[in-house]
Write a structure and sequence with these properties.
Number of helices: 1
Distance between the termini: 36 Å
Strand order of the largest sheet: 1-2-3
Mean pLDDT: 95
Helix content: 10-25%
Shape: elongated
Largest sheet: 3 strands, antiparallel
Order of helices and strands: EEEH
Bound molecules: zinc ion
Length: about 80
Amino acid sequence: MRETKCNTCGNTEYKERRITYLYSHQGQYLIAPNTPVEICSNCGTVYYSAEVLKAIERQFFAIHNNMASPDQFLQVPVKSM
Ligand SMILES: [Zn+2]
């Protein structure tokens, strides 16, 4: 658990959650379901751990260099606001 104060509100309590993270790099994407994060229990700011982000980045480059296979492919509709 984080022991530092929330950057937004100064609170020191966090909840652990799993979210779907969208990694993007130069117009290519990797969706990472089940990514562990910590969320400030006061204001809801989401905090990612450096190790988790590094792991997602490694998976992204492995998949896009054909060194690893994704669990599945999705077709994702896009619509600008
Ligand atoms: Zn906060």
